[in-house]
Amino acid sequence: MASGEGSSPDLSFARDLPITRRAIAFAQDLHGGQRRAADRAPFLVHPLEVASYLERSGCPDHVVAAAVLHDVLEDTDADRRQLESLFGRQVSELVATVSDNPAIGDEEQRKDDVRERVRNAGPDALVVHAADKVSKVRELRMLLAGGLDSHAAAVRLRRYRKSLEMLERTIPGDRVVELLRFELEALETLPPEPPGPLGGASA
Fold first, then answer.
1. 87 with 56: CB under 8 angstroms?
2. 168 flagged as catalytic
3. Which one from 75, 84, 113, 174 is the annotated catalytic residue?
4. What is the pLDDT along the chain (203 residues), one digit of tens a residue?
């Protein structure tokens, strides 16, 4: 199991955030060789992108750290007790709040459950959820450009729209939520072109 000690990317947004720096090293160790489906970049790019949005929005260290760690309960063998021992109760509770409950078998019900928990959890969970969705919408644009099935894209868009509606009711005017609205509107009104028959642009 990862210890959280070790080298991590030297990212300017985290230089003055000690908990976040430890979270980056821990997440880098855990996510290891995982890759994003959209561009085959290291999976770690996604949680770091989410964390950077929140740091730029003025969120405190523990919230930015939770953003770095927000996928470790779902996608690695880390558990909540380990997170609490390494990063404290605030971070572990926040990560657990924004994570899917694996005991819920139906995927749509899992997503609805997360949104409801986030809605009731307070501003920290809400902004982590919002920033995650901004990154996911941007990733969806790449997937569509790569030829993602229209039904699969519609399912994701519907979920992201549900998140936006919940967030705008709960924290109206938040800058990350407003960014999420823009990303969804831009994707829906200015979608990418699917790949051509040869999978590339013409010369």
1. no
2. no
3. 75
4. 343 444 568 899 999 999 999 999 999 999 989 999 999 999 999 999 999 999 999 999 999 999 999 999 999 999 999 999 999 999 999 999 999 999 999 999 999 999 999 999 999 999 999 999 999 999 999 999 999 999 999 999 999 999 999 999 999 999 999 999 999 999 999 999 988 765 444 43
Read off the amino acid at residue 79: D
Q: Is 16 considered catalytic here?
A: no
Domains of the chain in sequence order: 12-189 (1.10.3210.10)
Cα-atom radius of gyration of the chain, to the nearest Å? 17
**Which structure tokens are listed for 113?**
């459950």
Candidate list 74, 84, 113, 168, residue with the active-site label: 74
Around Cβ 37, how many Cβ atoms within 10 Å?
A: 12
β-sheet bridge partners, residue 35: 42
CA–CA separation, 120 and 169 (whole Å): 12
pTM: 0.92
Question: Which residue, chain included where needed, has tokens 């470790």?
Answer: 72
| Strand, coil or helix: 98 | coil
The Cα 24–Cα 10 span in angstroms is 10
Handedness of CA 158, 112, 41, 69 (dihedral sign): positive
- 32 Ramachandran zone, left/alpha/beta (phi>0; psi -120 to 50): left
User: What phi, psi does 48 have (nearest 5°)?
Assistant: -70, -40
